[in-house]
Amino acid sequence: MYVHIGLFVLLLMAAVLAGIGRIPLDSEEKRKGFRLLLLAGMMGNLLGLLLTVRNIREAEAPVERIARKSVVSHEDLVMHEEDSQEEVAFKIPPRVQEEKEETEKERDGVQEDGTQEILEEAALLNREKADPDYYYLPAEYEGRILTWTRIPEKTGSLVAVLGMLSGVLLMILKIREKQEREEKRAEELLRDYPGFIMKFTLFIQAGMTAREAFRQMVRVYRQSSGEKRTVYEELTVFCNEVDSGVSENDACLRFGERCKTAKYRVFSVLLVQNLQKGTAQLAELLERESLEAWEERKRKARIQGETASTRLLIPMILLMLLVMFIILIPAFLTFYRI
Hints:
Helix content: over 70%
Number of helices: 11
Oligomer: single chain
Radius of gyration: 38 Å
Structural class: alpha+beta
Distance between the termini: 72 Å
C-alpha cells in the first residue's frame, strides 16, 4: 500500500512542479510525453491499488486447507493465535505422499522460531485425512486456537511500478521521436543545399535580386508536383514575410535560423551583408560556396557508400558459412558411412 501512496505523491509533485515551471517542458513533444507519463503512471497505480486491495481481502480470509495442485513447491502462510498479536510465517510443504513430506522436513530442518512441532502436527493431521488433493492445516495445537491466512501477493505493487516505468518509456520515446524528425530534417536540408545554392547563383548571375530569385524558386517549386522539401517551404515563408512588411534583412536572418544548419546560416549572413554593404563579389562568393557544397556532398556520398559496403560484409560472411556447411556436411556424412 505504501508503494501506491508514494507513487501518487510523486506524480502529484511532478504535476505541480511542471505547472509552476520548475520542470522544463520547452517543446510540444516534451509536454505530450509528460502527459503520457502522468496518465500511464496514474492508470497503472490505480490498477495496482485495486489488485492490492483484492489481494489483501483474499489474504484476510481464513485458510483451512490448501489445494496441492495449485501450489508448485511451498505455500507462504501466516499463523495467528487467539488472544495474541504475534504472527508467525510458515512454509507448508504441499506434497501428496507423506514420504516426500518427511524428506522435505529433513531438508529444511527445524525452524528457528520453534514452529516445527506445529508442522509435525499438520503432517499427522494429513496422514489421518489421507486426502491426495488437499493439504489440511491444524485448527488448534495444545489448546491454542490457530487461524491461518495467506501472505498478500505483491502483484499490485508490481503493476504500479510497471505503469510508472511504461510512462517514463513513453516520454523518452516521444522525445526521441522529435529528435529523429529533426535529424531527418537536417539531413534533407543538407542534401538539398548544393542544388539550392546552384539555382540561386544562376538567378543572381542572370541579374535578379535576392528577393526576385527567391520568388522565382518558389514559383518553380509550386508548379512542380513533387514531394514537399523543407528548404523551399522555408523560402515560401520568407516570401510571405517580405510581402507582409518584414524587412529583407530580418527575413534572411529568420530563414537561416529556421533551417538550423550552419550552411544556411552562412548563406543568410552573406545575403544580409550584400543588402547592407552592397558586396560586388556576391556572385563569385556564391559560386565558390556552390562548388564547396557539391564537393561536400560527394564526400558524404562516398562515406555513405563505404558504410553500406561495410554493412554488407556480415550477410556475405553468413552466406559463405552457409555454402561451406552445404559442402562439408555431405562430405563428412559420406566419410562416416565408409
